[in-house]
Amino acid sequence: MDYNEAAGIAQFIYEKLRPKASRPDWFEDCATLGGSRDREGRWLMSVTLAENEPLEDGEFWEELGGHWVIISPHKVTGEKMVCISRCGGPVLTVFEMLIDPNDESVDVRVNLDLSDLDGALYKYGPPGG
Fold this sequence. Notes:
elongated, alpha+beta, 15% helix
């Protein structure tokens, strides 16, 4: 079983447990699915949310091609540069499962109720944007 197969199983199980219609509107744009193998070769797959960090001095939000991006002016020239990657704030695991590739059995370890989460902490873009 490769990563794509494990990700497909994780998406299928997550959709059964938390159908899209039951998830907050902001969730799809903020959630990340990822995974890695453990020492026994099982896939540990998770859905996570990262809290937004405050902008650094001089940074600002700008809409570019229909998407919000962080602009960081070059410290010397002042030229606008798109911030491609940031470490992000604290990460919250909202779903986690272990998949055994030998028999495709799954063990759901985390399945948080999303209704209590504050989407403003995770939504990418300017406040109200």
